[in-house]
Amino acid sequence: MEEEYTNFIQNERIEVNNKEYFQIDFLKAIMILLVIFDHTVPWSYKNYMGVGLWERISIPVFLVIMGFNMGLSFQRTGEKSLKKLYSKHYFKKKFWRYIWPFIILYIFSSAIGFILEGFNAFNQYEDSFFPQHLFLGILPFWGPGNWFIPVIFISIIIMPLLYKGFSGKFIWRITTLILCYLIELAVYLFLYFGFHQDPFTSWDNYYTWLFVRMTIALTPFSMLSAIGLGMWLSRKPDIFAKQNLLIWILAPFSLYYLIQHTFFGYRFPFMAGDYHLFVFPYSAMLVLLALKILPNKSNTRLSKGIKYISKSTYHILLTQILYFAIVISIYGDHYCASIFGINTGNYWVCLGYVFINWAVCIPIGIMWWYLENLVRVSRRNKKKLN
Q: Which has more confidence, 128 or 254?
């Protein structure tokens, strides 16, 4: 049984290609730590920490990696026709990888929310999402990071179509990438001119904007260029490849925008936040640098731990959503300043709380992923015996 499980884990680890990419494991592990950091430390602290250049990149990097991994995975199959890309095997894999863990979380989250808050736990979006959150994949007992789940679900549907564009000749690849940018830009222009209001002027405006972004705009389409850049890199993941001259050209402009946004508060009027096409080339360059600098393989004890975190990132994300939902239910907020009643100067208290949250969410997420895979191996063995 142990040998079967070890073989399964190794196959999972190199699932995206014949070649190992420890660099991707490392990036995913660091990014999930930064996601928890982001949900722990309030903006009153982060505003002084230049987080736009190193911490807020977690989701953009995840999006680039999502496109990168899917590009490699499709390349490994060698399939290019949409009929074969949209195979039963593809959807079955994605169901057990993403949707089934979400169903488990949905049940546990609803039960815990009911225990802590009764039916009030299901009325968080009464004036905005409710009951549409059931369709969107938003938990009724909400925790930060929940918005990313619809991104994953809808990405499952669009990935094969997107790969189709990136699997052709260079002219098709560059055309597909340009279309990703144009679609994303069109989404933001639609949101801006459709509402004629800044989504961040009030929570009602924000929730309305977010709901439209998730349903009409379909969230991945508002960040499509990041996934497109990931697929672009998957064709030739070498920082000095000719095709990646494009990243060298775009990344400095992206970095300049992030500096202006992070330190001087600048942003385009029709683009809210820092997850959009002006940010993603910087993240793509970071991925390229990691692929160049870090080793493809590593078998140290530390690297094995990193690989476990990497493969568990989705389960860790789900775990921290529920964890912070419980924290919010008890304390009314998930940021350290509100929970401990501290002022901006108490960085050490917040840092300690970050480590506590890592110590809670990371092991539980890994164990959840581990047990799921153990059950999967057991089922495979039973099928073989039958």
A: 254
